[in-house]
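haha ok so turns out i had the wrong file open the whole time. this is the CORRECT one, sorry everyone. sequence first:
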Amino acid sequence: MLDILDKGVCNNQTIRKALSNYLNKKVTIEYSLGRNKYESYQGIIKSLYNCVFLVEVLDENHSVKSFSYADIITKTIKISDK
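then structure:
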């Protein structure tokens, strides 16, 4: 799992900088739906913006999902580079 939150100050800029190392690389995203329910996606981080980042999901449709950096701060999503 990416240890973005363990590096001290955690804001949009530090998360964006940490995610820039994984731009155009395959990652696994685990999204919390609440009440111990999770969705898991295999995807490629495609774009980084000021408040959000885009992930192309590796499925039959190649859909694009957007996540905010606040999702990482609140631990709604977990990103691993497996």
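The beta strands are 26-34, 37-48, 52-57, 64-68, 77-80.
again sry for the mixup
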